[in-house]
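Sorry, any thoughts here?
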Amino acid sequence: MTRSPMKVGVFFGGMSAEHEVSWRSARNVVLAMDPERYQAIPILIDKQGRWFLLPREDLFSDRTLSARKEATLAPDRRILLDADKGKLSVVDRTSGRPVQDLEVIFPVTHGPYGEDGTLQGLCKIYQIPFVGPGVLGSAVCMDKEIMKRLLREQGIPIPRFLVFRAGAAGSDALQAVEKRLGYPVFVKPANLGSSVGITKVKSAEDLTKAVSYALQFDTKAIVEEFVEGREVECSVLGNENPIASIPGEVIPAPRHGFYSYDAKYKDPDGAGLIIPADLPEAVVSTVRDLAVSSFVALGCEGMARVDFFVRRDGTVLVNELNTIPGFTNISMYPKLWEASGISCRELVHRLILLALERFGKEAALSRNYDDPPREGPDERQVPQPVVKGQNESRG
């Protein structure tokens, strides 16, 4: 008997500054789904945090939402779990009746309240498979301070940085930037993406204003050294054994100064994408190795895009990881996989399979916490630490 297509809830929109970008990503994800395997169910989270079951045709239109939408979602008893089926029921807000079931979630909610572990935590609570990294990997990669500290602790090369919090941009802090980083620097919100809130600062006079601007979007601002080099990106796919795509290079148009939000999404000629990047084989190998190492070090699963700087001497620095990378027509994550031999349709299929695989493994873990082993391990079978000069063989 032929199985009916799996119902995939494509969550998009959200309360972040990347709301509009998420719409574009969701359209491409839905178009990429094989209709014989999957039935895409668009679920919009609007800028106020309200949840809507969106008709597919509305996803591809520019119409604004009205009160006529037939169903909404919300975490407070408006999404229900049928434990026997392992599905989420989308519930009509007015009648309280289920109107749709979801078997897996494909989040395309860029930025806070979607990419930062909050939506992933909701999926975990309701025991529903979801695409992309889990709660920990999502939260760590969203917070650029924590991400950079963990990468540095693992010996992965990163640019130098300082962290500013509200009220901390005093004279001592300004002197620390000049002494430890020099100018120019980049100032950005610690928890945001798509280059929102980022300023390139060329002198101390503009630093306070840039930090204040970044703090409009988050409680922390990151000040990073300017790296003279090329901007290279690499896509990662997998769970326990992730693989890396070929790298690509982003060349922002000189009028933008860097790969800003306008260069990415508003200006059709805001940046050039070179795929594959024209790099020596040794540098390509380093980029791909560091992409996988960073992915593993930060506890990622499913997917991530890793952004790099490559200096003229071939030195490679990891800039950041994006756990829900863009899926727009110009987004590097699907483009790099396509150039590596994996079409967007196959990529979306693999990501869903990875979500189901992880869910199955987690479901198989024991939950019987009240029945510990009756006897501990035999002490004679536990390997003892080797202390130099005491336990060494004397052959």
Observations:
- Residues 218 and 297 are 25 Å apart (CA to CA).
